Task: structure prediction
Amino acid sequence: MMAWLIWGVVIILLVLILLNNIKIVPQSYVFIIERLGVYNSSWGVGPHFRVPIIDKIIKIISLKEQVEDFRPQPVITKDNVTMMIDTVVYYQVMDPKLFAYGVDRPLNAMENLTATTLRNLVGDMELDECLTSRDKINEELLAILDEATDVWGIKVNRVELKNIVPPRDIQDAMEKQMRAERERREQILRAEGEKKSAILVAEGKKEAAILNAQAERESAILSAQGKKQMQILDAEGQAEAIMKIQSATAEGIKKINASAPSAQALALESMKTFAKVADGKATKIIVPTNLQDMAGITTTFKEFMKDSNIPSAEPLNIKINPNSSSGTSQVIEKQEQLAEAEAATQVKQGLGRLEKRFGLKTGRWGNNADMGGAGGK
Result:
C-alpha cells in the first residue's frame, strides 16, 4: 500500500514537471534557449518543450517595431550655440541571437550612439541651418545608426528629431526676428494692396476719360452733322428764295416788256435809280451822258433835286435841239421851256455838288446849251 502511494506521488510530480516545461511562444516573440549555459536555439511561434534542469529560457525578445524616446542631449552648433535635442528612434529586432549576444544593454548602446552621432552632425552646422535642416539630419543619422546596429541584430527604420530647444536669449532674438519679418511682410502686402488699388483707380479714371472723350466726340459729330444739315437746308432755302426772286424778276420783266413802256417812263425810273446811287456811301458814281432828251426827263430831275434839297435857280430860256438823237422836232411851249430850264439849272447845281463830293468830271452847261454832250464820270 505504501509503495502504491509512493508511485502515485512520483507520477503526479512527473506530470507537473512535464506540464511546467511545455511552453507556447506567442506571435511576434522569440525565446532564446540555452542548454547547460550554451546557446541552443531560438523558439518561434508555437508550443515547445523544455528539458527540465538542462534547458533555460534566458531572454524573450519581441519582433515588433518598437519606439524609443531618448532623453534630450546637449549639442553645440558650429557658431557655438548650445541647445538641447531629443530624438525618437523606430527600430525592430531582425536577429534575436545577435540582439541577445551582440551587445550588452543594446538600447543603452543605441542611445549613446545616437547622441554622439547627433553631436557630430550638428557640430558642422550653424544654428539657422540646423533649425531648417531636420530632414537632412534625420537621413544622415538614420544611415549611421542603421549601419552601426546591424551587428546587434537591430534594424533602425526611422529617426526623428523630436525637439530642438535653443537657449532663452536665442529664443528671444528669434522671436524678435520673426516679429520683424512678419511686420515686413505685412508692410509689403499693404503696399501691394495700395499699389493694386491705385492701379485700379487709375484704370477706372482712364476708362472714364476714354468714355467721356468718346461721348464728346460723338456729340461733336452729331452737332457738326446737325449744323451741316441746317446749313444745307438754309442754303437750299436761300437757293429756292433766289430762284423765286429771279422767277418773279423775270416775270416782272416779261410783264414790263409786254406793257411796252415809253421812253419817258424808262428815263424816270433811271433817274430814281441814279438818286438812290447818289445817296449811298460810294466815292465814285457813273453819270449818264444821254441828257439830250430834256423834255422827257425834266420831271424826273425835279423829283431828284427836291429829294436832294437843292435850292432852285432863275429860269433859263432853253431850246430843244430838233436834231437830237431822240428825233424830237416839236417846239415846247413857253411855260414848259421855263420849267425845263429851271429843272436843267437844278440838275446843273446837283451835278456840281456831286462833282465836289465825289471828284466827278461832268460837262458845263450854259443858257440855250445843247444837252447832247453833257455827261461823264
About this structure: Strands lie at 22-25, 29-35, 38-43, 46-49, 55-62, 66-69, 73-76, 82-93, 154-165.
